[in-house]
Amino acid sequence: MVKKIDVLICGSGSAGIFAGTWLARYGIPFTMLERRAGPMEIGQADGVQCRTVEIYESFGLSEELLREAYHILEVCFWGDDGNSGIARKSRAMDTENGLSHMPHVILNQARMNGLMLGKLDELCGGEKRIEYGWEIKKVEVDEALVGDPQSYCCQVVAEKDGKEETWLAKYVLGCDGAHSIVRKSLGYEMVGDTTDTVWGVMDIYPQTNFPDIRRKCTLHSSSGNILIIPREGGSLVRFYIQLPPGSRAKDVKLEDLQNTAKKIFAPYQMDFADTFWWSAYSIGQRIANNFHKDYRVFLTGDACHTHSPKAGQGMNVSLQDGYNLGWKLASVLRGLSPQSLLRTYVLERTKTAADLIAFDRVFSKKFSSKEERPGEFAEYFVKSGRYTAGFTAQYEDSELTDAKGSRQELAKGCLVGMRFPSAKVIRFCDCKAMQLQRVLQSNGRWRVVIFAGDVNNTDHKLRLEKLAQLLEPLAQTFTLAGGDIDDLIEPIVVLRSKFLETQQEQIPGYYWPVTGKWKIRDLHKVYIDDEHYNHGHGRAYEKYGVDRDVGAVVVVRPDQYVSKVTALDDFDGIEGFFKGCFVENRTLNGKL
């Protein structure tokens, strides 16, 4: 029997889970087919960049992640001591101050996926969406049906226990890893390195007198190079060891890795009380020659880009592929946005992947090569910190990004096309000091962040009232029938007023609307940039580069990226932008 489903996700890795979580958030039917017999138990990836922690925070999962993870606060650089041994050459802060309110941490990919699977299960109400033990055999697209948005034009054949079944889907996501059957079925190729580098990785319990075993370190010695990653729990440590050219992954033995490590650590003692897990694998820096088929089948993660593990980017970039695609696909299937929105996934993530490959090629070369001068690698490592933290991606203009039509000078710290940064503010309704980015939860809402100045100033208050007169009917135009006024477009007001001189009644009613099951006023949309009783002054206006007398409007996408920066009186610009993102006059019912 042929099964029909809106979205079929092939693979339950990081990208697939994030895409599925967005679909579940929007109530879109999907099925996820996974080759393994159950959820991932041990993952190769473990580096969790600051941006990824921010994303987990947006799903309400950061507290658990941070409690369990190892926090990387410092990096040590070791090199030859000139006497057949190694010595610490320098130390550096891992992440520059002010880059994020979240840290760089280490947590095994299996646990990272497990946290997100818990959220997915919660959003699905316990309904089973992942089917294990299925091997994808073939993916085809009926090009004659592609033009009909409602057609099930994708056919997927999969096998379990020797029995084949067929699914028909409107969309298929290839999240099935570096050896992707989805990619191969489409006839797409990986372009890049012609040879692979072989890496050994060990999770070990070290018995050693090496003093920095609980710090992230790079070791460069005449015997080879090692990257040390302390693991969560206080005892476990991961070693990444690049093996010599000509090595074959299948020939590598655990003793080979242990012996190589001992030589690199000399003159320090290095013994192994136990090895929790180890592997040897070959990998090259490659990118798929196409990320989609007719905008009905999309490739994500390792299915479309592969690279070395040195910079700790793999899991992060992969899950952010799914995070980027999931809400867009759900918005189209829900009838909120036109199908053309899906091209922005390819536009945005193809460039991100190409940038990753280019960065990894340089980073890998510097990691593996002998320094031309002392401290060269350490300098490059520190300089590239903004990239490795996940904060350099800048999306080009499209239906979702309008740098050309923006007035960037009004909010210099909110760069169009980049992730919306955080700053400390005070929530007015309850005097809670908090990070503004935390307000931007991944629940499908667009945000209009309004830097309105001082509401006690008559002119500032008047322009805030006029903006409400535009935004309220605009939000009603696109919100699903029966939904709350803030379901799709949510206003967030950031004032530069004196906290103790401000009253809730001064705020126009649109910014504290009646919503929800109980039809009570939502007071959690107004924030003040002022001195807090206990937490000092966040100086958010300074961080965002906003003049309180001029103000600014920052439009933020559901995935926390800045779409547009403009003036409070740019009514045509704001209205025109949203008309390009949404479909009007829908007859669907329900809420996000």
TrEMBL record:
<comment type="similarity">
    <text>Belongs to the PheA/TfdB FAD monooxygenase family.</text>
</comment>
<dbReference type="Pfam" id="PF07976">
    <property type="entry name" value="Phe_hydrox_dim"/>
</dbReference>
<keyword id="KW-0560">Oxidoreductase</keyword>
<dbReference type="GO" id="GO:0071949">
    <property type="term" value="F:FAD binding"/>
</dbReference>
<feature type="domain" description="FAD-binding">
    <location>
        <begin position="5"/>
        <end position="359"/>
    </location>
</feature>
<dbReference type="InterPro" id="IPR036188">
    <property type="entry name" value="FAD/NAD-bd_sf"/>
</dbReference>
<protein>
    <recommendedName>
        <fullName>Phenol 2-monooxygenase</fullName>
    </recommendedName>
</protein>
<dbReference type="InterPro" id="IPR012941">
    <property type="entry name" value="Phe_hydrox_C_dim_dom"/>
</dbReference>
<dbReference type="InterPro" id="IPR036249">
    <property type="entry name" value="Thioredoxin-like_sf"/>
</dbReference>
<dbReference type="InterPro" id="IPR002938">
    <property type="entry name" value="FAD-bd"/>
</dbReference>
<dbReference type="GO" id="GO:0016709">
    <property type="term" value="F:oxidoreductase activity, acting on paired donors, with incorporation or reduction of molecular oxygen, NAD(P)H as one donor, and incorporation of one atom of oxygen"/>
</dbReference>
<keyword id="KW-0285">Flavoprotein</keyword>
<feature type="domain" description="Phenol hydroxylase-like C-terminal dimerisation">
    <location>
        <begin position="394"/>
        <end position="585"/>
    </location>
</feature>
<dbReference type="Pfam" id="PF01494">
    <property type="entry name" value="FAD_binding_3"/>
</dbReference>
<dbReference type="InterPro" id="IPR038220">
    <property type="entry name" value="PHOX_C_sf"/>
</dbReference>
<dbReference type="InterPro" id="IPR050641">
    <property type="entry name" value="RIFMO-like"/>
</dbReference>
<keyword id="KW-0274">FAD</keyword>
